[in-house]
Amino acid sequence: MSYDDIPFNEIRVSKNPGLGRYLRRAHEVLISGEEPHSSIVLRAAGAAISNLVPLAELIRRRIGGLHQNTEITTMELMEFREPYEGGDKREFKRTMTMLKITLSKEADDEMKQSAGY
Questions:
Q1: 3 state SS of 98
Q2: Do residues 105 and 64 lie in contact, with contact meaning Cβ atoms separated by under 8 Å?
Q3: Is residue 11 within 8 Å of 43, Cβ to Cβ?
Q4: Is the alpha carbon torsion for 53, 59, 60, 61 positive or negative?
Q5: What is the C-alpha to C-alpha distance for residues 2 and 54, in angstroms, rounded to an integer?
Q6: DSSP code, position 89
Q7: Helices (H), the chain
Q8: Among the four residues 15, 68, 74, 102, which has the most C-beta atoms within 10 Å?
């Protein structure tokens, strides 16, 4: 998946510090952009989850009246490592936790029925 495949109203949060750029992007998507959207999707995996939750809270405080839906999922990753001395590549399977937070100006019935609402 390339960056071109990511929807305009989706933000993928990294573990690097600095939430200001994400806040500006959220404001652009929900309010000041050419085509304001009614919702925004925030995603993070692994260590980046610790940045996602404060970001969602900041957005909710700065842009009032938003509804929140939170989903926790997992993703399996296959890693291949070269051996130190001869031999075959070693294969590892890792499970990574992913968090998806949807902030919406209006809550539809599907969102209200979700366990994360």
A1: strand
A2: no
A3: yes
A4: positive
A5: 26
A6: P
A7: 20-27, 49-62, 109-113
A8: 102
Structure tokens at 58: 């900041």
Angstrom distance (rounded) from CA 24 to CA 107 = 23
The radius of gyration of the chain's CA atoms, rounded to the nearest angstrom, is 18
The full DSSP string for 83-116 is: -SSSSPPEEEEEEEEEEEEEEESS--HHHHHSTT
Question: How many Cβ atoms sit within 10 Å of the Cβ of residue 38?
Answer: 12
Q: What is the pTM of this model?
A: 0.80
**Domains of the chain from N-terminus onward:** 9-108 (3.30.110.20)
DSSP strand pairing (39-45 vs 90-104): antiparallel
Interatomic CA distance for residues 33 and 9, integer angstroms: 11
DSSP state of 116: T
Q: What pLDDT, in 10s, does the model give residues 59-74?
A: 999 998 999 999 999 9
Residues 76-90: pLDDT tens digits?
A: 989 888 877 777 788
| Distance (Å, whole) CA 28 – CA 36 | 7
Residue 46 CB-density burial (10 A; 0-12 exposed, 13-18 middle, 19+ buried)? middle
